[in-house]
Amino acid sequence: FVIVPCGITASVSKEDEEGIINTCKEVETKLKKAGFRVYGDYRDNYTPGWKFNHWEVKGVPVRLEIGPNDKARSQLTVVLRHTGTKSTTPMENSEIKLREVLDQIHNDLYKKAKQELDSHTVVVKDWTGFLKGLDNSCIMLTPFCGEPACEDLIKKDSARDAVVEEGAPAMGAKGLCIPFDQPEKLAEKQPCCHPDCKNPAKYYTLFGRSY
What is the pLDDT of residues 155-183, one digit of tens each? Predict the structure, then answer.
């Protein structure tokens, strides 16, 4: 977490300013004792907006804002980096709520990554489908014999001339893993995905490019 004091303007008295800063420091100490990593940004030569951007760029997932209204209401303003959503929570027992917030962030990011992975994973059974999936930036579940020499052939023959990223070669696909959860049972004498391989497939294997 990063804690940013807010609402300290020229019209705010020195006493009120010190009160906001002290409240921030009390929250910082409390959260550190609860086991959180917390940093209070009390620099007075930068605006709150500059600090917001600074810590977002650094990747801090949660920003806690405390201004005059928050102090008066004994609350924290909680801003999530991954969604930009803003909410408030009471300062009392805030460590419990913030632990739930971190769990929710984890679940949201996992769900998004899982959906992205699933949408780019395809089951293919022949070399034509393999190359098509590769050109569509997918990873392929495909029948594979498991032989290192065959994997070398797949890597060599799936290298393409198309530019994947400026200045980077279009590398061939390699075996990423053999999933415990197979998409289906292989047919008897199911051939390996590479057309020059004469061995029967042993299992579906995940293939893709590594960058």
Answer: 999 986 544 445 445 678 999 999 999 99
